[in-house]
Each structure stands twice: as C-alpha cells, then as structure tokens.
Amino acid sequence: MTPADERLNHTPSIDVLEESVVALAVPASVHESIIDLAYGMDGPRAIERLADIANGEPGVACAILRSAGAGASSVALALESQNPYSAITAALGAPTIADEDQFGLALGMHCRATAIAGRQIALRTRCMQPDVAHAACLLHDIGKRAMYQAMPKAYGRAILEAATGHEDLCLCEQQVLGVNHCVVGRRLAQKWRLADEIQQAAWLHHQPADVMSVAACVAALADYAARRARVGWSGNPAFPADVDSLASKLGLKVRDLDDIAGEIGSIVRQSQPTQARAVGKAGTRTIQALVDMNSRMGDELRQSQGHAGAFELLAQLFRHLGGSLQDILFGAADVIESIGGKPCGVYLVSPSRDRLHLVASAYAGKGNYAALEYAAPSQNDLVEGPALRSMQAVTDISELSRLLDPAAAHHLPLMDSGLHVGGVILPMGPAASGGSLRLLAPHFVSLFREVSRRLAAKDMEEKLVAVSGRMAAQQESLAAARAMSAIAEMAAGAAHEMNNPLAVISGRAQLMRQKAEDEAQRKVWQTITDQAQQISNIITELMEFASPAQPIPERVPVADLLESARDSSCQAGGEGKSSGNAQAALQAVDIEVADRALAVFADPRQAKDVLVELLRNAAAAGAEKISMSARQHNAQVLLTVTDDGQGMAPETLAKAFTPFFSHQRAGRRRGMGLSWARRYVELNGGRISIRSTPGEGTTVSVRLPAGGN
After folding, report:
1. Where does the pLDDT of residue 675 fall: very low under 50, low under 70, confident under 90, or very high at 90 and above?
2. pLDDT at residue number 668
3. How is the beta sheet containing 345-349 ordered, strand by strand?
4. What separation in angstroms does the CA of 22 have from each of 26, 106, 142, 198?
5. pLDDT for position 574
6. Which CATH number goes with the domain that contains 566?
7. Residue 334 forms part of a structural domain
C-alpha cells in the first residue's frame, strides 16, 4: 500500500491525488537551475536550462514550479516566455522519471496523439487557438495519471472492471474510488491555475454534447480520433455514443475524424520524445544549497513583524481563493507567522459541518494535511483555552494527536455570528495570548466564510455535472422504455384493428384456393393465405415483446446452458453470407467454462433464447470462429460470446439494441433479436453490453445473477 493509500482514512480522495501528482521527483540539475535563478545568478542561462528540462523531461515540469518556492511565479513566467504552456502541458508528454511503467507509457502516447488530433481539429474548424487546443487535449486525462499514481491498486481495479465489463471507465472509477478522473483533472488544473479551456477539457470531455464547452468538445473528438488511430492506450473501452452530434457541433463529419486518425498515427510514433537526462553536480552540494536558500527565505519572512505585512498576505489570500483548500490554510498559517506566531495548526470547518480540514505544523507552506471528523459543539464547550480540553468537543482527540500535541497547545476558535467556522492552534506561551492575532481574527472569519461559500458552490457544481452525466447514461434506458410503451400501444391497436380483416382475407383466400380450377391459381391464393398469417405472427410477436412473460428463475448449470444453446442454434440454421459456412461455424462453437459447478439463477428458457440469438447473430455476421465462455464475477456470472465476423462501426453499435434496427440487407430478419436478448437479460436481473471493431469481430458480455449451490 502506498503512503497515499494509507492516508485515505484521514484525507479526501481528491486532496490526496492533488498532493501526490505534484510530488514528483526532481533531478539535481533542476535544483541547481532553480537556485541559480533564485539568487539572480546567470538568470537567462538558468531560464533556458529550465525550459530545456521542462521539454526534455516533461514528467518533472510541474515539480519545477513547486520546487521554486517564492520564485515560482517568475520561473513560470520565464518558462512560458520560452514556450507557452510548456511548463505545465508537458506534464503528460512522457512518463515521469520515477515511474516509467507500462500504464504511464501507454497513457502518455495516447495523450500525445490526442494533442495532435486536437490541434488538427482546431486548425480545421478555427473554433479555438491551435496551441490552446494542443495543451487542453494533452492534459485532458491528467486525472487518470494522478489517480494511478496516488492509488495504483485501487485504480487498477477500476480499469479491470471497465475492461471486463466493457463499461465506461468514469462509471467504474466512481464505483470503486468514489470519484472519477474528470473531477480530479479539473481540480489539478485549478490548482495549477491553468487556462479555463484546459480546465473545461479535463472536466467535461465525457459529458453529453449539449453540456460540453468548445474545448471539452475538441478534447472528446480528439480522444476519439486518437483511439481510432490505436496510438497508446486510454484505459477506457467505451466509445462515446454521440460522436455524430459532437462532430456536427464543430462543423465536422465522422469521416473527418477518421482522416485525422489516419494522419496522427505515424506522426506520434516518429516523434516520440526521448527523455533528456540532465547531468548535475554533486547531490550533497545541491541539497545543502537548497537548505541554505530555504533558511534565508525563512529568516527574511520572519523579519516582517508588522501588521502591514500580515494584511498584505491576507489580501493575497483573498485574491487567490481559487487555489486548493490546503494552499489557503497554509497561507493563513503564513499570515499568523508574519506577526510572530508559530501555529501548530490551522483548520476550517467544512460547509457540510461534518469534516474538519486541518494543516498541522504549517510553517512557510510546509506541513501535513488531514480531514478529521467534526462534531458540532455547544457554546459552553467551545471556548478559548488549552487545546486538549477545547478540541475534545469538536473532533477525536486521538486522531488530532497524530498531527500535533494538543497537551502543549492553545486553541483559539473562530466564530461567525455564533457559528463555529474554524480555528487556530498555537504553542503555549506569550504568542498564544498576544493581541495581534485577535486583531486579525475578524479577517480570518471573513476569509473562512468566503472559502466555505466557494467550497459549497464547487461541490454543488460538481454534483450537478455528475447528475447530468448519470441522466445522460439513463437516457438510453428511458428511450427504450418509451419504445416499449409505443410498441405496446401499437401492437394492441394493430391486434384489434387488423386481426379481424386479416381473418376475413385469410378465410376468403383459403375458400378461393379450394375452388381454384388449376394449380397456378391455387398457388396465388395460398401465397395470400401465407402472407396474412405472417402479418398475424408479427402482431403477436410485438404484443409478446411489449408484455413478455415474467421469468421463472431457477438454478441453471452454466455448462449445460451453453451446450444447449449451441445445439439449438445449429438446429435453427445459419443466416450468414453462406448458409453452409454459418452452419459449420455454429457446429464448431468453442465452449470454455472456468468451473463446471458454475450456475446462474435465471429463467432457463429465456437465458437459452438470449444465447441462441447471440450465436445466430455471430453466424449472420460471417464469423468463421465463434466461442462462448463463462466465469464468476463477484455475485454474478459473466457469459461472453465472441466471434471473428465483420464487426460493427460505432454508429451501428450505438443502435444495436434498438427495436426494428437491422444492419443486414432488406428481406432478412426484422431487427428484434438483440432487443429480445436485452429484454430477457434485464427481466432476469442482469446486464448486457457489446464491444465490436469493424473487420475484427464482436464480443457480447452478459451478466446474470450467480446461482450459488
């Protein structure tokens, strides 16, 4: 378990991820350049060296800014003057020095391909500046890198869930980790104060088309093109269903994206950057120089004892409230230190009144962050005094003791109209009872009030976007429900209005066939009789589809179920390009069951009909090899049917379960097979999904409740 995993009991996931992604290793040569720049020694040369490193070793570009300390703003400006966005946007351009794993390499290549595609889209549509589009697309998946770096095992489970179920990675991240990479990416982009377009691309590129900004739409289409080019790996097996809508929003066609996909493959593979290895001087000298620089900066900061300096720091905090909560609390600690105090901790009560966000031993922006449980105290319990007694009323004192020593500290609570909003914890001594801190207390209350308001607004904003995403995911099932309702109404009306005339037509045709004098006339009247019966069968099928028989579930051995479905599909015959070839493929279906004792709890007839339909579809797609497999997956059994047929394009795949939709030529089946399959699967408490690639084949995954013993 990584240190970030261990801190999850005390720290919200997103805050841990923010902390982990910026804590990247920095080579000694980078430290030397920062020191030179901070001391004003050979500034232009140092700037040039930093820019070279940011482009050559992009995994540490963000850490350069973090390591620069007080000189970060000048370093950032210097780097951007050399190459706009290079100091930040290169962060995913190549894997980090400390973590050259396969996931990092594959994701980095995917992001570079997406960036190239984004630039091409911007050039074709002129919807935004190409450089900004490049930066936004390069960083659109920064949340994935952060989540993998902070919680590799947990994130690996999310990736596995998405891969095995062919489901959207965002949904699996939300289920496993409680947060998805889009929200994490947005938080990181805000933390680094990147352009709004980059924040929107990281946050909204998986949302429905009508929610996306232009930058998010460019990132989503570029991501699609990069995946079509098969450059790198994004970790997400699901393609967006509304590619046409996204493309038309920017005035493009899907074929334009295919053209871009064809262009970027060779570009990315030829331009894969080689990581520059800076040769630095001795590590001991570098570390000592950094220590000396930090000590000098700390001495200079502590010399500012006047209230003017404190108010200036407060003003800066108010001007930069868009930063992370930890940065704001660290900034508050710096204000206290500027007036002679050395806070053990500064904390803020969350807007939801259930968490206490605290930075401990927070001197000059350094310290530990934790989110502790909060219990609202009574007015009598919440008084200024020894922290050991006063803090017991608001949080678990044993958890607090892991971060600071409450027995040797003094607690000053901050109140806003009788409401506890935060507080300061100081060492026992003269500073704890000084008047300077009390002079600033009303301003801290105002600061915490505004921070709480913004946190509540951000939380509401993210909840609204999450709800929008869930609503978009539910639109397909709602549309299917509406289709079922329409079919039911149509079938009922058709049965009433058409069955009687059909009975008359069929009866008269039979009578005329009996009276016919020659064989040719008898065939004509028989054809009319058969077609009338066919229409009656269609009406009956529609009525059964709209109101199917309720399942009668029982324990069904999976091995027997798969073998029975194979035998029945062979008896039904194939409908592919060649009936003989399809029949041969059905007879040679390969069955693999991980455990012969495996069973599902479902209606045996309906479960079998589902598998027979999937096998017939595989044969109709011209498959030469078809296989079925089954294995336990949590409380469900995962059944898969895989073929090497012609596959389906994304636009066809999006409509695969739509009633009456068929990609086969006219005169074939009515397009109800997969609709029936999903109907039966859902009636039995399961789920069905399809993954298909044109020219390679199709895999259908069916999850049904496990049958136990």
Report:
1. confident
2. 46
3. 366-373, 355-363, 345-349, 419-427, 409-416, 385-386
4. 11, 20, 11, 17
5. 42
6. 3.30.565.10
7. no
